[in-house]
Amino acid sequence: MKIVIIGAGIAGLTAGIALKKFGYQVVIYEQVKEIRPVGAAISLWPNGVKCLNYLGLKDKVAALGGQMDHLSYVDGIHGDVMTAFSLMPLIQDAGQRPYPVSRAELQSMLMDEFGHEDIYLGMKMTGLNQKEDSVHITFEDGSEDRANLLIGADGTHSMTRRYVLGEQVPRRYAGYVNWNGLVKASEEIAPLAQWTTYVADGKRVSLMPVSEGRFYFFFDVPLPVGLENNKQNYKFDLKSYFEGWCPQVQMLIEQLDIERTNRVEIHDIEPFLKFYKGTVVLIGDAAHSTTPDIGQGGCQAMEDAVYLARALQVNSLGIEDALSRYQDKRNERAKEMVLRARKRCDITHMKDACITEAWYGELRKEKGENIMKGILNNIVGNVLD
Fold it and tell me: In this protein, which residues make up the domain named FAD-binding (predicted)?
């Protein structure tokens, strides 16, 4: 059986690796001519790491991951610790460490594992239609291909989703802008083996350790959509938005390499439950585009990939039967993750000031159990439980 995957992001590559291991003929088409990951890093919680472990990538993903032993929230203005605790109880319960990883390094590792010879860059899909037992795909350069199954891993702006649903679902602005990147790790900014988040006024500054002595950082600021995006103004803008914040935040801003800093307006898409049409199926952001507020976007894409591959491998009543089983397994869980992230987004970014201030008060009383319970609730129910 020949399978075509549209999109060489995390979802498409993970699916491609899984399907190749089961013996399928797989090619990936990617519209960009050069792979440039969106975002500097990604949080791989144990459910996502287990998917990569299952595919034989245990040592490789561990080598990319940062040592994250503790979690802390800090008052962004005054610099005092609101709560801090060990993540070891969560790690023990989940059976796997979380790994913050560089997105570019993760994507490069996945591309190497899948095989560059079967990845075609600069190939923008412009049309698809189903004829009897095959899907016909056309590309912007006039070329064509056909497959028994087409997997749409083409992200939040997915053309495949438009085909499956019969309409283009609009994206929803989540209300905040995110700046992110990588910097050299320093104890002067945050403890090296800790996920540290500075909070105040509905804003966040967060640091996670990744490999090779680096921090992944992000700044969140509630702002109107559509403001000017000029890299040369990033430091000036961040200094303005975080004026009066504690010295650690000011030091981080000073250390930014603006040419390697990303700025993203955060969106999601209203959840839907239809993931396939005939022998065309959606995975990753094409199926459930979410905000990054609970760190599950990439992990859910990996769950999609592993379960889809397994559904095709172990069921023998045809492709559409396997796709139906994949849809029934994944759509409600993915919907729940989108809505949980949306709820966390609103609390964190002060959609209602009273609710956010109450959350800050709760953090000062938190011993770790409630936060870890919330993270574990996102992890459990994954395809490898």
Answer: 2-340
Strands (E), 242-383: 262-269, 276-277, 280-282
236 falls within a domain:
no
**Residue-wise pLDDT tens digits, 167-215:** 999 999 999 999 999 999 999 999 999 999 999 999 999 999 999 999 9
For residues 48 and 296, give the distance between their C-alpha atoms in angstroms, rounded to a whole number: 8
The whole-number pLDDT of residue 132 equals: 82
- Residue 244: partners with Cβ closer than 8 Å, 6 or more residues away: 77
Asked if the structure places residue 78 within a domain, the reply is yes
Q: What is the pLDDT of residue 38?
A: 66
In a domain, 234, yes or no: no
In terms of residues, how long is the chain?
385
364 token code pair: 């000062």
For the chain, the domain total comes to 1
Of 279, 380, 269, the closest CA to residue 327 belongs to 279
- The Cα–Cα gap between 169 and 172 comes to 9
Q: Beta strands 276-277 and 280-282: pairing type?
A: antiparallel
374 lies in which domain range?
2-171+268-379
pLDDT < 50 positions in the chain? none
Distances (CA, A) of 337 to 29, 289, 342, 357, 377: 28, 10, 8, 24, 10
- Look up the CATH number of the domain holding residue 366: 3.50.50.60
Question: Could you give the CA distance from residue 305 to residue 55 in angstroms, rounded to a whole number?
Answer: 11
- pLDDT recorded at residue 61: 97
